[in-house]
Amino acid sequence: MEELKWKYELSTKKDKSIKSFFMQWEWLLVVILILIITFNSSISGNFFTVNTFLTAPMSFMDKAFMVLPMTFILLLGMIDISVGSIVALSAVMMGLAFQSGAPMWLAIVTSLFTGVICGFLNGLLNTKFSELPPMILTFATQTIFRGFSYVLLENNSISGFPTWYTNLGWGSVAGIPIIMLVFIVVAILFTAVLHKTVFGREIYAIGFNKRTSIISGVKVNRNIIIVFTLMGLMAAVTSLFLTSRMSSVRADIGMGYELEVIAMVVLGGVNTSGGIGRILGPIISVFIIGFLRYGLGIANVSSQTITLIIGVLLIVSVLVTRIKIKNKKI
Amino acid sequence: MSENILKKNRYKNLTKNMNVKEIGLLVFMIIAMIYIQMKNPQFLTGTNITDLLKNTSLLGMLSVGMMLVMLTGGIDLSIGAVLALSGMSAARFVSIYPDLPVVFSLLLGMMIGIVTGLILGLLVSKGRINPTIASLGMMNVHRGLTYVVGNNAWISAHQMTPAFKSLSTGSLFGLNNLILFSITTFAIFYYFLQYAKTGRNIYAVGSNYEATSITGIATNRTIVTAYVLNGLIAGLAGVLWVSKYASAQGDTGVGYEMSVIAACVLGGVSVRGGVGKISSLILGVLMLGILNNALPLLNISTFWEDFITGFIILVAILLNLYIQKRQKKDALKRRAI
Amino acid sequence: MKKTLYFLAATAVLLAGCTNSGSEGETGSTDDVKSFGFVYKNTGNPFGEKLMEGFINSIEEQGYTAITKAPDSPTAEQQINMIQELVAQGVDGIAISANDPDALQPALNAARDQGIQIISIDSAVNTESRNTHIQQADPVGIGRVLAESALDMADGAGEIAILSATSTATNQNTWIEEMQNVMDSDEKYADLKIVKIAYGDDLRDKSTSETEALLQSYPDLKVIVAPSTVALAAAAKVVTDKGIGDNVKVTGLGLPSEMAEYIESDVTPYMYLWNPIDMGYLAGYTLAEMADGNISGELGDTFDAGDLGTKEVTEAMDGGTEVLLGEPFKFDAENIDQWKDIF
C-alpha cells in the first residue's frame, strides 16, 4: 500500500508565520532532545557532566555517518538494508589488506574502495531491476556481502593496528572527539548537497514522483547509483571508526545497524515513501537516540527496556507526524 | 447455464496453477535435489525428508501469514518477536499450571498473536504508519516483553509437560503434528484467498489501494484482518516452536523474520502487494527448507553457507523477474492480434 | 498544536514510567562506597544471570555496591558502550565476560588508565586488557573430561561428532582444541574418531538441523559431544525424539536445568559444568581485593575469597594470569535433582 503523498510541500504560498516556523518537526525533535537530557540528568547524577557530552557521542557517532546518505535513499522512496553487511565487508577487506603487509593508509583506502564498490553494486541492481523493490534487492545483497565477509575471514580476527589509528575513535582534538569533528564536516557537506544543489532538488523530485522526473529529463538512474554509492562509502567510513574503537576486525561486526539507522532517519521526520523530509531531523535524532541510550544505560536501565522504549518512541513519533499532517489544511 | 460456466472457470483456475514462473522454480529445485543426492545419498531418505518437512513446517506456516501481510503491500518485521513472546508465555503458562489441558496454552499463544496483529494492523491502517517502521518498533516492544514474561530466564524441557512437548512431536494418521498443522494452514488459506470475500479484498487492497477504497471495500478492515491473521498464525507457531525445541528463550527467533521474508520472495510474493499465490509460496518454502537441510549434509564449510544462500536468493528473484517480463511481453503480443 | 502537546506529555510519562520499572542491577549506591561493575555477554542467559547473582552476593557481602549490565545482542560494540557507561558511573572495578577477546582492549585500557581494575570471567579478554582472568576450570582439564566421556560412552571405539556454538566462540574453540590434543596424545583414543565439528550457532533450530544432518550422514555415530548448553540440549532432544537414545549418547557441557530431562532418561548419562554462582562470587572478591590494593593480579598473589577460602593467582594458557575456580563438576542421574532448580 503506497502511502498517499501529502501535497502541502507543493503549495506555492509558504506559511511564514512564527507559529508555523516553530511547529516544524525539527523543533519538536530539539524539544525531545532537551527533554531527554533533562530526564537523564534527573535519574543519574553522572549524566550532566562535561565528560558525558564529550565522550558519550563517541559511542553512537559511528552510525551517524550512515544516517546522512540513508536520508537521501529514503527521500528517493527507496531503502537499503545491506549497510550493516557493507560495514563488515569493508572492515574485513581493510583488515586483510593490513594483514598482508600494506601500510595503514592503503588499508584505509581499501576499506573505502570496498564500500564504494558495494554501494555501486546496490545502485546498479536497483536501477537495472527497478521493478523489484529495493527492500528485496538489498536483502539479497545484505546476505551476500555478509556471507562474503565470512568466506574471507571465517572466524578469525585481525588486530594489531597502529596506535594512531586507534586514536581516531578514542581521541579528541581540543577536547572535541575526532569522530565528532569529522561528522560535522561530513554533515555540512551532505546538507549543502541536499539543500543547495540541483542534485539535491532532483533527489526530492525523484522521490516525490519518479515518472515526472524521468519525463522532465532528470537522470534518475545516474542519481540513484550515485546515492547508493555514497551510502556504501559512508558505511565504509563507519567501519573505519568502528574498527578503530575496537582495534580489531571480525566478520560479524555491524549486525543490525541498518534497522537502527533507518529508525533514526524516520524519527528525523523523513517519509519512507519519498520526497518529504530534511536532513537536519535525522542528525538531531542521532543525538536523541544516542543520549537516550547512554543516559538510560548510566542509570542502569536494562538493555531490553531501553530497546523497548526506543521502539515505542519510534512508533509514537511517527504516529504524531501522521496526526499532525492529517489536521493541517492543504 | 451460467453456473456451469462459472464452475468451469473455477476449475480452470485450479489447473492453471502451474505457470512458467512456478515451473522454473520447480525445475531449479529438481536440479538442486539431484545434485545434492549425488553428493550425499542420505538426502532422499525417508528420515531426512521427514526431518526436512518437520523443520520447514513452522517456516511454512509463518510464510502464509507473512504473505497475507505482503499482499496488502505491507511487511511484518516483528514476526520473530511475536513468535518468542507467544512461545515464552505459553511455556510459562504450562510450567505454572501443568495440570490444565494443553489446548489452553495453544489458545493463549493464539490470543497473544491476535492482539499483537491487531495493534500492528491498526498502526498501519488507521495510523498510516509505514509497515516497516511500525513492525520494527513493535518488534522491539515484543522482544522486551518476552524478557519480562520470562523473567530473564529460560524455560527448559523439564519444566514442560509431556503433553505440551508432544504437541509438536506427536502424530496423527501417521503424519507428524507439525506437518499436519502446516498442511492445514496452507489449505485453509488457499481457499480463503481464492474464494472468500475478505481474501479477494486483500488482493484488491494490495494491487490498488485508492481504487479499492473508492469501490466501497472497507480497506482498513481488510488490512487489519490480514495483520490479525498473520499474528494468529505467528502466535500458534510460537507455541509449536517452543514445544518442538522444548525450550523458550528471550532471544528465540531473533532474525527469523528474514528467513520468512526470503521464503515469501522465493515463492513469488511481491513486496509491492497484490501478487502471490499459495501454490508458489509452497515451492518457495520448500526451496528454502531444502537449502537449510542440504547445506549441512553437503559438508560445505559453515562460512560459505550465508554467501550461497544469499546468492541463490538473488538468482531466484532475478530469474523470476526475467520470466515475468517475458510473460508480459508474450501477453502483450497476444493482445495485439 | 494540541496533538504536539499530547505527544510531549506522552513522552514525559513514558520516560518517567521507566524510572520505576527500569532501574535494575544497581544495589543502593552511595558516593563514598566503592562500586563494581559486571558485564555479561547477553541478556536473558541463565548462566549469566547466575554469574551476576554470585557477583552481587560477594560484593554486597563486603559492603560495596554492584552494578550489572548485559547487552541485548551478543556484540562487542555494545559491550564497549557499557564499559564506557561504567566508567562514567565511577566504578572501581569491572568484571567482564567478553563477546570478543580483542575488540574490548581500547575500551578496557581507557578504563584502566582511570585507575579501574579490570578482570575477565568466563569468556576471557586478551592479556593486555586485563589484570587477571577468572577461569572456571583448566581448559586442558575440560578437554580431558570431554574426551574421556566420549570414550566411555562410545565403549572405547567408534565415530563421534562435536556440535559447538558459533564458529567464533573462543571458549568452545579452546576446549575443542584441548580435547583433540588429549585424543592425539594418548593411545587409548586410537580407535575413537571425530568425524565432524558442526556449529549450531547457539540457536535451537540450527543446532537441531545440524544434529539431524550428523545423524543422517554418519549412521554409525556413537556419541555427540556438545560443549555448549544450547547445542547439548538441542542434540539431546533430537536423539530423544528419534528414539535412538540407546545407540547414540549425547554429552558435553550444559546447564543442569536444561539437561535434567535428558540425564534422567539416560540419553545423557552424565555431563560436566561448573558453578556459575561460585564463579561470580570469586570474581567479586578478586575485584574488591584489587581495588583495596591487596593484590594486583600478578603471578603468586594470594587472597581470601570469602566462603571459597584462599585463592592463588596462577599462570594462564594465554600467557597472562588467572584464578582457577576448581575442577569441572560432573552432573549425573544421582545429583541432577538437587541442581536442576538452582541453575
Protein architecture, described:
The complex is a heterotrimer of chains A (330), B (337) and C (343). Chain A has 330 residues and is an all-alpha fold. Chain A is built from 14 helices and four strands. In chain A, the strands form two sheets. A two-stranded antiparallel ribbon of chain A has the order 1-4. In chain A, strands 2-3 form a two-stranded antiparallel ribbon. Chain A starts with 17 loop residues before the first helix and ends with a helix. About 2% of the residues of chain A have low confidence. Chain B is an all-alpha fold and 337 residues long. Chain B is built from 14 helices and two strands, in the order αααααααββααααααα. In chain B, α2 packs parallel to α13 and α12 packs across α13. In chain C, the strands form three sheets. Chain C has an eight-stranded mixed β-sheet with strand order 2-1-3-4-5-13-12-11, with helices on both faces. The radius of gyration of chain C is 22 Å and the shape is elongated. In chain C, 43% of the residues lie in helices and 20% in strands. Chains in contact: A-B, A-C, B-C.
Biggest sheet features of chain C: 8 strands, mixed
How many strand units of chain C? 14
Assembly type: heterotrimer
Approximately how much beta-strand content do the residues of chain A carry? under 5%
| Average pLDDT figure of chain C | 86
Strand content range of chain C: 15-25%
- The structural class of chain C is alpha/beta
**General form of chain C:** elongated
